[in-house]
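The material for today's practical consists of a large collection of protein records. An example says more than a description, so a record of this kind follows:
***
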Amino acid sequence: MYDVIIIGGGVVGCCIARELSKIKMRIAVLEKNSDIGEGATKANSGIVHAGYDAAAGTLKALLNVRGNKMMKELADELDFPFINNGSLVLCFEENIASAENDHIANSGVSADRVVIKNDRSRLEELLDRGRQNGVAGLKILTGDAIRRLEPAVSQSVTSGLYAPTGGIVCPFGLTYAMAENAAVNGVEFYRQTKVVGIEKKKDIFYITCDRGVFEGRLVINVAGIYADLIHNMVSNEPMTIRPRRGEYVLYDKGVGGRVSHTVFQLPGAYGKGVLVTPTVHGNLLVGPTAEDIEDKEAVNTTAIGSATVMDKAAVSIGKIAVGEVITSFAGLRAHGGTGDFTIKEVDDVPGFLDVAGIDSPGLTAAPAIGEYVAQMVREILPAEDKKDFKPERRGIKSGWGEVICRCERITKEEIYEAIRRTPGATSIDGIKRRTRAGMGRCQGGFCSPRIIEILAQELGKEPWEITKAGAGSEILFYPD
């Protein structure tokens, strides 16, 4: 019997778990994948948004700004990478915008999803909205002032919105930090535990999973693009979550210094548009596209998607050689269609909380969502705070020893530590996201065989049982 059961182990679920671990409650997190953070969390921009984009008075606006303000202190407390690098939203000359729109339309991509804006009035709207939301330091700069900050920015840029509170974070680092600290404080994590049914009898929820039945007094639905399926198991008021696919291209560290700020173009109906940003690890990231789809598992990349983000990024900072690309990837954002996050107790199912439609700026807002939901839980299930709550966590440190990943200089001891932590790595991707082994130029070409060997040794498995990311993604073939 648990007091609270959290369905979904992405960044938002882990932030909620960590916040609730401050209270005297028994808490479980159920995650259907082989590891936490394997949904939208693993494939996003890693941007800590300033908070000027969301409409004033919405949960997105409130929780974005609050999450932004929390990030530095949390990074210090939980030891994950965060840089307050600031951001810019660019406005272009009319002829440049028109020519680029023609080029993109001719590439076969829907123009309404990639159109480049040059509307100075939109910058003014963002400035005004940001000030209403409480974003500090916003100002509109001339094109020359922007190029003094970012020399690589195009000469066609005429003006831009500067947000000094913008930042970048490692989404994996944030998620693992929250989960590990929650686990130290008593939260129990169950991975490869898919929810297949929920029934409420009297005041108890019975959650049937492929690994058995869990009982809880309160349920929090943080299942990302599957939040509608979980909601519809218990409520007569249907919910629909539609996946919105975004494709990204990641460049090598050799061009990671092309910009120091996060550089946006004016946002449109499908989101904040294609950005160019350094990452906290020194790479350069461009993307995403925005495409509403039906398949909740369609994280494949496309030739048009990669070409689109590279072409649009080139409008901001000039072209970068294709040879500098080290990988591309796609993620699915949970688009709820309301224009805002859905965070509430379900009307016809007391004790069941939806935390759904958490698309951008969900990563930024995640710590604040944790606070917000924890307060809701306190009001439904009053409980005392823990006097022995442990607020700090230390990350995996690089050290001397045998180097397993040459590109990122990751040692054997770091890989051992990634496996032995709670919740620890059980797959190649789990190692990659915790240590960066396999994230370098060769993308695991050199280190993967050694990582398989170490995982098999530590987990007591045969090498052919080790997976990339859970059942069905085995790397080695063992003949009968």
About this structure: The longest strand covers residues 325-335.
